[in-house]
Write a structure and sequence with these properties.
Helix content is 2%, strand content 48%. With 198 residues, the chain is an all-beta fold. The protein folds into two domains: 9-97, Immunoglobulins (Immunoglobulin-like, Sandwich); 108-197, Immunoglobulins (Immunoglobulin-like), CATH 2.60.40. 26% of the residues are buried. It comes from Nestor notabilis.
């Protein structure tokens, strides 16, 4: 069993819940002491593989590249296994672009009922480097048990929605989804409903 270390398998650049994460599986027959090193290249600078300091000699089989990668450029990453003096060949992911390929997570709703108003705002699990993209959210309000939903669309991420409840009585539910516009509109799934008694 000398002299050969197989490269990591299933190297995938995943865009999940506002983050870009590289994942991989150990190569066949990897020794227990194996570590991994990750690099990436962008389409702006092909053949220039950039180092990722926090994913050098890591024992993990994933690497969060969210704020390492440029946001508006297609990038790919590669990973190699290292064990003692042995190094595997690099294994590469496909190209992805954070902005176009990102998968959105539903926002977390904060609901506050005061006198005749419901105040709703949404928080997003955003990394600092993508705070500036104008994420929005869409909000639905409906009476529990009814399919008749009132929609509030395209609310800027940091804005609070105030809903007049003077005419509403009973159990009302709210749910929201993240959205943002690139070529078309992109949406997350709707969040779990939050219900309040009015």
């Amino acid at each position: 069993g000398h002299g050969k270390l197989l490269p990591p398998q299933n190297v995938t650049l995943l865009s999940k819940d506002f983050d870009m994460i590289l994942t991989w599986a150990p190569g066949e027959g990897s020794p227990p002491d194996v570590t991994y090193t990750v690099r990436y290249e962008s389409q702006e600078r092909m053949d220039k593989w950039m180092k990722v300091p926090h994913c050098k000699n890591t024992r993990r089989t994933s690497c969060n590249l969210t704020c390492v990668l440029p946001v508006f450029v297609k990038v790919r990453a590669r990973v190699k296994a290292v064990s003692g003096q042995l190094q595997s060949p690099w294994a590469e992911s496909q190209f992805k672009e954070y902005y176009l390929d990102v998968e959105l997570a539903p926002p977390v709703l904060h609901v506050n009922v005061k006198e005749n108003k419901i105040h709703v705002n949404a928080s997003f699990p955003l990394a600092a480097c993508v705070e500036s993209i104008s994420w929005m959210y869409d909000l639905n309000l409906w009476e529990a048990g009814s399919n008749d939903k009132k929609q509030y669309e395209g609310i800027f991420r940091k804005n609070t929605v105030s809903i007049d409840t003077t005419a509403l009585r009973g159990n009302y539910c709210l749910s929201a989804r993240s959205s943002f516009q690139n070529i078309g509109f992109k949406h997350s799934k709707f969040s779990q409903p939050v219900c309040v008694l009015l």
